[in-house]
Design a protein that fits this description.
By secondary structure, the protein is α/β, with parallel strands linked by helices. It contains nine helices and six strands. Bound molecules: 6-O-phosphono-beta-D-glucopyranose (BG6) and magnesium ion. 6-O-phosphono-beta-D-glucopyranose binds near residues 9, 10, 46 and 117.
């Protein structure tokens, strides 16, 4: 019986996945590394520093920067990203998310956020949904990022639920792998190819219907 939902944030609740891409793209261009949307699929769900490492590896520049220089580059991307999220409002909830969250609350289902983003709490406030969530897993306290299941296991634990009592919702391949490895029912948002490992996948958030999800997750 499903009693909790554990959500990713960027690309599921709001379209900040696009802003992450734009900010990384700007940095990659500056470093003369070509980053495209296909490569960006591999960055979704991945922590800030791991994303930078993947971009530098793409340009064969992984050995070119010291730890301090990499921290400066990651800060530069984050400052750009923070400018892009300045104007986020409740109108930026992706289609269907407001209804889904309301239906979940009405059904007494507990909610957790499992986002790798350190900007997550600020964005939740801007979207006006912070109060709906019972738990926000702190990404700073994680030993391993997605696709490791740690963040979803912690989400279930902090909700005081077993993995089998939870559903996880993700738009990233690494995120779906993390949910699956946690023993949680995975719901993917995205193309069939990108979401092929999800237990249940929909093309976009407007198709995330609570009754459809529960029917599958509870069976
Ligand atoms: C994830 C995003 O949610 O958070 C990644 O999918 C991002 O693209 C990661 O790199 C870390 O975010 P932040 O805001 O801490 O740099
Ligand atoms: Mg995401």
């Amino acid at each position: 019986m499903i009693k909790g939902f554990i959500f990713d944030l960027d690309g599921v609740i709001t379209d900040t996945a696009e802003y992450h891409y734009q900010a990384w793209k700007r940095l990659a261009d500056k470093l003369k590394i070509s980053l495209d949307r296909e490569m960006n699929e591999q960055l979704k769900g991945i922590s800030r520093m791991d994303s930078l490492d993947r971009i530098l590896a793409l340009g064969n520049q992984i050995e070119s920067y010291s730890v301090e220089e990499k921290e400066r580059l990651a800060d530069e991307k984050n400052e750009d990203y923070k400018k892009l999220i300045l104007d986020v409002t409740p109108a930026d909830l992706l289609p269907g998310i407001s209804d889904l969250l309301a239906n979940l609350k009405a059904a007494g289902i507990r909610l957790a956020l499992a986002s790798a983003s350190k900007n997550g709490p600020v964005i939740m406030e801007k979207l006006g949904i912070a109060d709906l969530f019972d738990v926000v897993v702190d990404p700073a306290g994680l030993e391993n990022g997605k696709p490791d299941p740690e963040i979803f296991i912690k989400g279930a634990e902090q909700l005081h639920l077993k993995p089998a009592e939870c559903v996880g919702v993700e738009d990233a391949q690494a995120g779906i792998e993390a949910i699956n490895a946690a023993g949680i029912f995975s719901v993917g948002v995205g193309t069939k190819e990108a979401m092929e490992k999800a237990d249940y996948a929909v093309a976009d958030t407007s198709k995330l219907k609570l009754t459809d999800i529960l029917e599958r997750a509870n069976s």
